[in-house]
Amino acid sequence: MAEAQSKRGGVPRDVLLVEYSAANDVYLTYDGFRWQAGSFLIAGVFVYWGFLIQSTPSEMVVGVSSVLVASLMSCWLLFASHYRQLYLLKLRRLHEIELLLGMEQHLRFTPLARGLQYKAQGIRGHHIDNVVYVLTAVGGSVLAIAKNGFSYWDLAVFLLVPFVIWRATRNEGEMKKNLGPLVRPSET
What we know:
Layout: H1 2-7, H2 13-54, H3 59-101, H4 125-148, H5 156-179
């Protein structure tokens, strides 16, 4: 008993199970909440696009409003990026506890799985976040160009979008680098 507890860093099994349950609940919340919040913003973008299609606003109004929409969607993407980092940190702790307790619920999606390893296919959720961000952030400018022709006002969002994508990607890369690789603790 004492040897098993020492492999867990002196933390009793029941304490790890409670922590596992709490981390799993929060992990699921972080995963879903960014889209719950984002869906309202995305709906607002469609309303804005409808306004652009139905009316003939000045180039300056389109330019300024497109920058405001792109800024709002930038806040959403950076928020989603922050929540993804929290999600990944919770997932990391779940992996650590699973390694300590011999569980594999989430480890099956990693190379550390002892049994069957699962591989997800297709585009990852955070890449979909980036695609939705780009489409919603630049869509107003694209619609304005298609409807009214080119204006320098329409270019303003194209300066913001690459910076925000770079920043969100860099944040996650730095966090993963700081975490380092997940390794199975020695069983000797």
